[in-house]
Amino acid sequence: xxxSRKENLFVILTILPSTAAIITxxxxxxxxxxxxxxxxxxxxxxxxxxxxxxxxYNLFKNPRFLIDIxxxxxxxxxxIAICIGGGLILAILLDQNLKGVRIFQNIYLFPLxxxxxxxxxxxxxxxxxxGGVNILLNNLLTRIGIDNINIDWGWFIVPNQIGPFRxxxxxxxxxxxxxxxxxxxxxxxxGIRGIPDELRExxxxxxxxEFQIYSKVVLxxxxxxxxxxxxxxxxxSLKVFDLIYVMTGSGPGFVTDFPSIFMYEATFKANxxxxxxxxxxxxxLMVAVVxxxxxxxxxxxxxxx
Length: 305
Description:
mainly alpha
């Protein structure tokens, strides 16, 4: 019994520092941000006088914030779709046991080792209308005798849009998808290789084609991985900041503006701390809407097991 008490005490003392740090620097600062969001703090001098829901009401009357929400939704939908679809296709191709599979696995996973800042700088150069791929492609076309075509990829400086979707978001979506499609590929590949070979062999004996094996046997078993990927990518897309800020910024007419950039500029450039805190709380609620149902479902599943 004494030995058991010593073990329990050791476990408590081990996790106590990290628990205290999480309570202080995560939940403590969330609580402080909530307090600031209900205040009148504008300027360097703190003002914690109660403002009610005025800051949140003013946000939804602000055209910039409404544009930011629309941009974030458009970005999230396409970013998640490209990563899920591209990751699944790459995983299926790598599952064919071809030569050089490990090399391609490393190539597809390499972008994940790069920070969003480096990715943003690289893709900003690629899509730069005055350099990058524009010059390389146009020079190549000129060398092969094609002079009547002039490629211009300056999308992120043009405020054109198709319906609610702004074309300036395309370079940002491409850059973000390039970085995370390999991550989703790794998730799917692990799931595919975890499926017993007996299931596929039984389907082949029954006369199923390879397409039918993947569509009727493999894909249904990958639903938990798809759900996990959706949650992870959704969480990333809702709070994306560094890639957008480095690559395009808010853009002309806020064509590539996001709530995270608005929050940063309101807080650290305009010194409007109550407005910045309000945006931060709304972003937290958006992330919670995505994550909490997933966590609840996992807890229920564990309780049943």
